[in-house]
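Recall the central idea of this unit: under ordinary conditions, the amino acid sequence of a chain determines the structure it adopts. In this exercise we apply that idea directly, starting from the sequence alone.
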Amino acid sequence: IGHSLGGIVVKQMIQDASDLGIADYSDIAMRTRGVIFLGTPNTGSDLPSAQKMIEKLGIYTGATVTQDQLVDNSPILLRLNLWYRNRVESMEIKTQAFAETKPFNGVIVVDQSSADPQVAGIAVVPVPENHQTICKPASKQADVYVAVKRFIDEHVVPLP
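Accordingly, the structure predicted from this sequence is:
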């Protein structure tokens, strides 16, 4: 489960585990059965409107990714997303993505279009949360909590 930049990190870890040929890492790729993206900018973010929010998030999280790597249609993010969507089916990794629909400090940080990992057969689930609350369900009845639990129960727990 990856929130925001964490979803990008998850994809990069799977790619590295799959492609680097390092035995200790290959288990990560072979054993991953499901990925959930929560407000992940799979194709970047519209920085002119979200730049200040990303700067604030960087201060809070200590993130070192540069803003030019998170811009809408960033070549780095597009390549990683292309790799993921082309490999996820053959790797038998189930995917679910959630998009925020409420602004955080007046900004939709990751809109529904960017939250879409473009995996065949996967529809982004819009939820009434902002970029901060999408990863912090208020209760076990919250839409995100219920959907994430259902995804885990269906795609991860049944595995031997």
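The radius of gyration is 15 Å.
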